[in-house]
Amino acid sequence: MPTYTAPTKDMQFVLHELLNVSTADTPGYSELEADFTAAVLEEAGKLASEVLSPLNTVGDSEGCVLENGVVRTPTGFRDAFEQMKEGGWTALDLPEEFGGQNMPYVLGTAVGEMFSGANQAFTMYQGLTHGAASAILVHGSDEQKATYLPNMASCQWTGTMNLTEPHCGTDLGLMRTRAEPQGDGSYKVTGQKIFISAGEHDMAENIIHLVLAKIPGGPEGIKGVSLFIVPKFMVNEDGSLGERNGVSCGKIEEKMGIHGNSTCVMNYDGATGYLLGEEHKGMRAMFTMMNEARIGVGMQGLAQAEVAYQNAVDYAKDRLQGRAVTGTENPDGPADPLIVHPDIRRSLMDQKSFIEGARAFLLWGAKMIDQSHRGGDDDAEGMVSLLTPVIKGFLTDEGFDMTILAQQVYGGHGYIEEWGMSQFARDARIAMIYEGANGVQALDLVGRKLPQNGGKPVMAFFDMVKGFIKENEGDEALKKDFLDPLKEASKHLQAAGMFFMQNGMKNPNEALAGSYDFMHLFGHVCLGLMWAQMAKAAQAALEGGASDTAFYETKLATGRYYMQRRLPATAMHLARIESGADPVMALPAEQF
Amino acid sequence: MPTYTAPTKDMQFVLHELLNVSTADTPGYSELEADFTAAVLEEAGKLASEVLSPLNTVGDSEGCVLENGVVRTPTGFRDAFEQMKEGGWTALDLPEEFGGQNMPYVLGTAVGEMFSGANQAFTMYQGLTHGAASAILVHGSDEQKATYLPNMASCQWTGTMNLTEPHCGTDLGLMRTRAEPQGDGSYKVTGQKIFISAGEHDMAENIIHLVLAKIPGGPEGIKGVSLFIVPKFMVNEDGSLGERNGVSCGKIEEKMGIHGNSTCVMNYDGATGYLLGEEHKGMRAMFTMMNEARIGVGMQGLAQAEVAYQNAVDYAKDRLQGRAVTGTENPDGPADPLIVHPDIRRSLMDQKSFIEGARAFLLWGAKMIDQSHRGGDDDAEGMVSLLTPVIKGFLTDEGFDMTILAQQVYGGHGYIEEWGMSQFARDARIAMIYEGANGVQALDLVGRKLPQNGGKPVMAFFDMVKGFIKENEGDEALKKDFLDPLKEASKHLQAAGMFFMQNGMKNPNEALAGSYDFMHLFGHVCLGLMWAQMAKAAQAALEGGASDTAFYETKLATGRYYMQRRLPATAMHLARIESGADPVMALPAEQF
Question: How many CA atoms lie within 13 A of B171 on its CB side?
Fold first, then answer.
């Protein structure tokens, strides 16, 4: 059975030696001292590895079952959910007045990586609730907040997000679900929503559905979409639960993975709903949470890569097969462990160098969310808004690829379900799709985020990279191994941006045909930047006489691997981008 | 439900306009006139799309069930197997004297792509039988051939290959299964084999297991391995079936995909076996079939990419979502079809340009198998031996990636099982693992095939590329769009080979750390070569006044896409290779 070990040490390194959270001037960050975050991560790690991880394969093999309108979650999920609630893990970063812990988002993200890595399907029940609660927190009336938030913060009630319909996903303007005003401030919501994660299950007393719908007579298309609160059970004025609302689960989808989460077709038959935020401003309400939600999905990509890597390493050390070509390394055994073989190393180093770079990138993004939300820092908001599609798209694409590499280390044992490696790949696959398919992330990046604010965030990004290089190029080792490759990769990114500027005006397809490659090119530059910064931190620790020299030397070697072996991808992406729209758009549709 | 359309037209183009099979001087090729191959492919295509394809999702959802030692295949499989037998599709390229059709392997490969594309799990029952029959054909005594081949050629009896044991897959020298001589020419075979495809099922009267085992007292390790014929039911002298042999299925594995094929744990408890070939020469016997078997797996990678692509194209044309950024293309509909969006095009062109290049590469490889086996052409044997790991490794890695791209076109609908896209990805995944995991293919390529025969085959490959470029560089259009990029990519491949030569002698890890990238670099150069040759053929057809100009213009545009958008990967692989062993091998094992 696969296992999960919380990467506490690496998270501590990122939080304190790279991001220096406890000395940052963001409100709430002064509490994030190393001892405190270590204690939180330690406890979260215990829950992850001891409770959630053993249930991961159970959830996969049992799945969720719909019987007579009731969804049964896999064996053990209810108990584990109780433990998560009792431990106070359901609302780390929600305000204390509603029962949250008011911790910074950056810490919630680190904890979230642990829970997702241990059991993605399970953690989604809490994650969706957190997303819905955040929407109510930002857009709800005081009454709505008082009615829903305390029970959602504790996960007594869970939440869902209802966007997709059978005929529309990305293009929500085509939505057919309608909400008829009833004159008493409430609405009757009617329509069908699909792919609703945690739409129905047996782990909560009530489920609070957030539903996008159109109010008849409103504007056409996406501008006529409003957001509604539709509880499964009506909530009485005293807070007790009333009668069942007109919403039900019609079907559970059979999926490639995340079987432990109930992905429901939800039928709304004149269900009572309450407007959340303003009429026809439903998309805006969704968008305010989008950075967080997408960063959360990027986190899932990293988390599955991490757990798959951990198990691949264990197997590579344990499985005896063949002999090292440079001479036997395990003379007493019948063969050497897999890890002696260079191609197994290549695979593990690809994984390790991605994971640690991605974790730094993710937590940097989360820190900027805090700077924006807690500190009102507009520059941080602009930067994280620019980088969000990169975090989501690049981390989930690469995260999935890494689970495939990890699975491959197991040979045939990776293909059978017994070892759990197949599940990591199947679960990781969804993150490339939901919360905006990665092609949509690339479109968002190139079509909206690059030109945003006159290009200010992207210029700020380049200035930051240049600034870091300039500031540190006196350090010869850092320059050669890290800054020079970063400079080269960053030039490729700039050249790609320049190509879009020069050609995209005349023909937007010239930019959009390269959008996906641009997202990956950008992702590599970000990870290159993270590695250069981590290398600097590791050098500083070694020069400062840190006792755990192996940790910092490993960090440097892993970073050098990324710069030498992964960053060369930027030239390829640039070449693809600079070939422009012609090769991509050449064929008439009927010739495909 | 997904569909499959046999790519007959494209296969005909490759067979007749690229490979010119009917005018080649290989024995049997003169029969391969265009009308004849068209008729064969047409009929095979009907069976594939009308019979095998509709059973693909059935096989996936039902899987195989073991009850009381008997394995039940999915509903409809038995009938379909009868149709395959009745149509004479089970032994296209086996000799007529044993009931085969004696057709060239190249045609069998084209037909095999169709069957695999329509239903990989089903086709494996026949494929494994073919492999086992080929081994008996080459290594069996006259009596063994007479006893087994006619029934295997007709698939009245099916076959299996038993190599892997729980503790050893790649490193078969660790094998524990033993075969005790009984003094009467037979052996008692005892041991456990795992991952045995089609090990037990209900579609054949008998199952002929080929089993690797050690004869006690023989040489240690891989040199003491022999190959045995172990029938499920003993065969009486008159050819009738006798008593059940001591072999049974202990378990069916739960797998990520190919659920329609029964992957069995096979227990041999003193089962009666007969030596096939010579004592202790079992691995050699396996190796003689290895090129074909591995090319057959490469074919599966291509086949899954093809069927996934076909369905992605259908969906992209059908699904209305968003508007073309350059102006509405479907004004009467609520939205434009997905295929108007540049990033969807990018994905479909990646798929299409891979698939058509891969098909040419595959059939060229199959043609060389014929040149070697039928024509005794040692140069062809050397070349196909060199390219086999590239065909297997590159086509299955890329084929899997393409199924992921195709699945992504469906958004959330790609993740649920209903549309069948998940199955294509899950089924394609195994091809990267079995018949030698792709890391082992890369090792074979760099460690064995490059130095083989003093490097003669790889030099011949470079000469061929250079020769083709030189011969055609007077053609300006061909030169700019195809020959120049091919020359550049080929230089990268040569530089990589040079790096291995200069550094691998001192330290073999310098070569092996780059072996995987070398396999991909080589694959891109091969597909670049195929595209350059196909472009030449397409130009010739257009200049010759071919009526179907759209087909040839599409061929040229698709080829240009490959050269511009995919070939730039070669520089990245070279950069990774030239970074050498240090970054890969830097960490002590305990630091992973």
Answer: 18
Please give, one letter per residue, the 3-state secondary structure of A59-77.
HHHHCCEEECCEEECCCCH
Nearest to B564 among A255, A557, A583 (CB): A583
Q: Do A123 and A175 have their domain in common?
A: yes
Q: What is the DSSP string of B444-484?
A: IIIIIITTHHHHHHHHHHHHHHHHHHHHHTT-HHHIIIIIH
Instruction: Looking at the structure, tell me whether residues B132 and B69 fall in a common domain.
Output: yes
Residue B258: closest C-alpha in chain A: A415
Is there a contact between B285 and B135 (Cβ–Cβ < 8 Å)? yes
A171 vs B: CB within 8 A: yes
Which residues, other chains included, contact B257 with Cβ-Cβ below 8 Å and sequence gap of 6+? A415, B60, B121, B423, B425, B426, B427, B428, B429, B430
Residues of B in contact with A169 (CB under 8 A): 321, 411-412
Are A294 and A387 a contacting pair, CB within 8 Å?
Answer: no
- Is residue A448 in some structural domain? no
User: For testing the chain A interface, which of B163, B168, B256, B310 should be mutated: the one with the most A CBs within 10 Å?
Assistant: B256
Residue among B171, B347, B587 whose CB faces A557 most closely = B587
Check CB contact of B438 with chain A, cutoff 8 Å. yes
The Cβ of residue A174 has, within 10 Å, a number of other Cβ atoms equal to 17
Nearest to A565 among B426, B579, B589 (CB): B579
Statement to judge: residues A116 and A200 lie in one domain: yes
Considering A443, A466, A497, which residue would you say is the last residue of a domain? A443
What string of pLDDT tens digits covers the 592 residues of chain B?
899 999 999 999 999 999 999 999 999 999 999 999 999 999 999 999 999 999 999 999 999 999 998 999 999 999 999 999 999 999 999 999 999 999 999 999 999 999 999 999 999 999 999 999 999 999 999 999 999 999 999 999 999 999 999 999 889 999 999 999 999 999 999 999 999 999 999 999 999 999 999 999 999 999 999 999 999 999 999 999 999 999 999 999 999 999 999 999 999 999 999 999 999 999 988 887 788 899 999 999 999 999 999 999 999 999 999 999 999 999 999 999 999 999 999 999 999 999 999 999 999 999 999 999 999 999 999 999 999 999 999 999 999 999 999 999 999 999 999 999 999 999 999 999 999 999 999 999 999 999 999 999 999 999 999 999 999 999 999 999 999 999 999 999 999 999 999 999 999 999 999 999 999 999 999 999 999 999 999 999 999 999 999 999 999 999 999 999 999 999 999 999 999 999 999 999 999 9
Indicate whether B265 and B389 sit together in one domain. Answer: no
Nearest CA-CA partner of A546 in A121, A13, A151, A11: A13
Distances (CA, A) of A17 to A13, A21, A306, B429: 5, 9, 21, 40
Tokens of A405: 């590499």
Range of the domain at B173: 8-286
CATH code of the domain containing A269: 2.40.110.20
Cβ atoms of B117 and B431 within 8 Å: the answer is no
B255 close contact with A: CB closer than 8 A: yes
A273 and A157 within one domain: yes
Domain count, chain A: 3
Pair B278, B305 in one domain: no
- The verdict on residue B445 lying in a domain is no
Rounded CA-CA distance B90/B82 in Å is 10
Mutate to test the interface with A, among B254, B313, B415, B560 (most CBs of A within 10 A): B415
Alpha helices in B47-76 (DSSP H): 56-62
Structure tokens at A57: 């394969």
